[in-house]
Amino acid sequence: MSVEVSQCKVEEALEIVVGKWKPVILLHLLHEGTKRFSELKRSMPGITQKMLTKQLRELEDEDIIQRVIYPQVPPKVEYSMTDYGRTLAPILESMHEWGEKHVLHKQKMVFSSEQDENVQ
Amino acid sequence: MSVEVSQCKVEEALEIVVGKWKPVILLHLLHEGTKRFSELKRSMPGITQKMLTKQLRELEDEDIIQRVIYPQVPPKVEYSMTDYGRTLAPILESMHEWGEKHVLHKQKMVFSSEQDENVQ
DNA sequence: CCGTATCCAATTAGATACTG
DNA sequence: CAGTATCTAATTGGATACGG
């Protein structure tokens, strides 16, 4: 019983996890628990407020993370994984692991192509 | 020993697998073995020749798939997974599985929000 | 502090035509 | 058959300013 590729659902999973910043956000929340907006922003140098907000909204809409607003001045908003979102953890960890190996693999590829050049 | 998020390598893995069509291409090659260009194109209605070529080149550059050119007229080019590429299989299958569940989860989310509306 | 709105630059993707 | 080239449309992302 092989998987029907025509009804490919890999993309469903991918859309959750992709975007330049989503995996980083998710790993932060998975490993460090609840974080507030400004903490997340600080831990991701280079991200703009607009992008962080957008990525967080998308993750919230998909029920991966939850947002808790404290009605106070100045405002305080905390983000954390939902139980459902935590079901993504194994995939994220596998990808992290594979990604680390892939960095090494790319180095080997570059190295052997340099060798080839020397042979010519 | 927790994972250092600052050196996040999930993105390394993601870059391989993302792009509107890459997961579909990879699942085709994983499940059906060697395929030629025109077969892949036929099995992905909606993809343009330009996009298919581009995605295939990127996967080839990363050593995930290999291209074999038969020097004949008309031309014949066959694509298949590399041994290295096949190490992605578990991740792709996990994502496929999670994706299927997520489709159901989204349906439940829509259903319960419809219930909410009726309660008002 | 935590956003939204707007404008603009850059990247990405489709349609189409052409080639060995 | 398996591409490349070109032009254009659409999407994405950054910078900046402003608001509750």
Automatic annotation (TrEMBL), chains A, B:
Claim: Transcription regulation is one of the keywords in the record: yes
Domain of life: Bacteria
A Pfam family recorded for this sequence: HxlR
Domain (HTH hxlR-type): residue spans on this chain: 8-107
SUPFAM superfamilies, per the entry: Winged helix' DNA-binding domain
InterPro entries: ArsR-like_HTH (IPR011991), HTH_HxlR (IPR002577), WH-like_DNA-bd_sf (IPR036388), WH_DNA-bd_sf (IPR036390)
Record has Isomerase as a keyword: no
Protein name per Swiss-Prot or TrEMBL: Helix-turn-helix transcriptional regulator
Lineage of origin: Bacteria, Bacillati, Bacillota, Bacilli, Bacillales
